[in-house]
Amino acid sequence: MAVRVRIPAQLRSLAGGQGELLVEDVATVGEALAAVASTHPELAERILDATGEPRRFVNVFVRDEDIRFLSGLATSVGDGDVISVVPAVAGGSDADSR
C-alpha cells in the first residue's frame, strides 16, 4: 500500500527538492510521517515537535480533512491516499481590513 505525502514549496529543499514523497506499508498518518522522518529527518523537524505531534503552525490533511478533527496521527490511511502538509498562513494588518 502506497501513500503520497505532499510537501509545501517552502519545505521542498529539505525533501531533496521533491513536492511529493511516496511511502509504503503504512496504516496511519503517524506511520507515514515517521517514514518521511526516517529518510528526511530535517524535514520532520519542521513538521513535528519534540513530542512527535504536528507543530502548532503546521496543518496536516488526509483526504482533504484536517487530522485534528479526525484521529490525529492515528488517522488511518489507505492505498492511494494523499497526506498534505500545509503551513498555517497568517499575516496582514488591521489596515488591510478597513
Chain-wise SSE layout:
Elements: E1 2-6, E2 20-24, H1 29-39, H2 41-47, E3 58-62, E4 65-66, E5 82-87
Helix pairs in contact: 1-2
Q: Can you characterise this structure?
A:
- This protein is α+β, with helices and mostly antiparallel strands and 98 residues long.
- It has one domain: Ubiquitin-like (UB roll), CATH 3.10.20.
- It contains two helices and five strands, in the order ββααβββ.
- It has helices at 29-39, 41-47; strands spanning 2-6, 20-24, 58-62, 65-66, 82-87.
- It has a five-stranded mixed sheet, with helices on one face.
- A hairpin with a 2-residue loop joins β3 (58-62) and β4.
- α1 packs across α2 (41-47).
- The longest helix is centred in the middle third of the chain and has 11 residues, at 29-39.
- The radius of gyration is 14 Å and the shape is globular.
- The N and C termini lie far apart (50 Å).
- The mean pLDDT is 90.
